[in-house]
Automatic annotation (TrEMBL):
Sorted UniProt keywords: Oxidoreductase
Entry similarity comment: Belongs to the short-chain dehydrogenases/reductases (SDR) family.
Keyword Oxidoreductase assigned: yes
Annotated organism of origin: Actinoallomurus vinaceus
Name listed for the protein in its UniProt record: SDR family oxidoreductase
């Protein structure tokens, strides 16, 4: 990828997202810094600008699909094209014993909504803008922790576990990555997913009261490999563990599972998508 163009990084006000946004700006990209907190987002923009880069704030709470839709629409309206979408924002397993189930603004299990439904909605609504910026890329920040979705209990009303909810959301994100990559294969837009690093020193990991094993810098290197490095332009529909190509959960490659997930997702997102969005692929 040439070091120019516009990049949207979700969850860019702290941790991995902030580091990736800063690294992209250092490479010459204009970075759209997404977050929920105006002051923190402005601080990231100020940091980037002091280092000689350019950036601007885009606020939205991705626990609301209406706000996710509006974020995509603002980006499309304000910018003629987009070179990169990094779906980084996420909700972790939470604080032990991981039993507190929370719902999103739309009544979905919170982790499924923020870690999966919002990235799908953003990718769908931004697909035309990414096509205009082609060659363009979508990088979905996933996790090595993945577990099959229970289609009979998407809200996890029974036997709730924050860890399982997190794993299921990342399973779904990987499966979606592979489908979208197939859909956009002829449009100059690559779509890849990665586990950036194990237990980085971020708020998400500290909240889970687990000792960090990796640095944010390690995760940033892995994301940048797909976001701005040669790997992200050479392959599509792949899963990476760090900077190395790997295999996601085997269920994410199952056509029947992916087809059912796609149908269910389309139903859940129907109020927030136009016919053009649904045909984005």
């Amino acid at each position: 990828m040439t070091n120019s163009g516009i990049a949207l990084v979700t969850g860019a006000t702290a941790g991995l997202g902030r580091a990736v946004a800063t690294a992209l700006a250092e490479q010459g990209m204009h970075v759209l810094v997404h977050g929920r907190d105006a002051e923190r987002a402005a601080g990231v923009v100020e940091r980037i600008e002091k280092a000689g880069g350019t950036a601007q704030v885009h606020l939205a709470d991705l626990a609301s699909l209406a706000q996710a839709r509006d974020l995509a629409d603002r980006v499309s309206a304000e910018h003629g094209s987009l070179r990169l979408l990094v779906n980084n924002a996420g909700v972790g397993a939470g604080r032990p014993p991981y039993r507190r189930r929370r719902l999103s603004a739309d009544g979905h299990e919170l982790r499924f909504a923020v870690n999966y439904l919002a990235p799908v909605l953003l990718a769908r609504r931004l697909a035309p803008t990414l096509r205009k910026g082609a060659p363009a890329r979508i990088v979905n920040v996933g996790s090595v922790g993945q577990a099959p979705v229970d289609f009979a209990d998407l809200r996890m009303d029974a036997h709730y576990s924050g860890t399982q909810a997190y794993f299921r959301s990342k399973f779904a994100l990987a499966a979606f990555t592979f489908d979208l990559a197939d859909e956009l294969a002829d449009d100059g837009v690559t779509v890849n997913c990665l586990h950036p690093a194990s237990l980085m020193n971020t708020h998400m990991v500290r909240e889970a009261m687990v000792p960090p094993m990796s640095t944010v810098g390690t995760g940033t290197k892995a994301v940048m490999n797909l976001a701005a490095g040669p790997a992200g332009g050479a392959v599509t529909g792949r899963y990476f563990d760090g900077t190395s190509e790997a295999r996601a959960h085997e269920g994410t490659y199952d056509p029947a599972i992916r087809s059912r997930l796609s149908r269910v997702t389309a139903e859940l997102l129907a109020p927030f998508l136009t016919d053009d969005d649904r045909a984005a692929g």
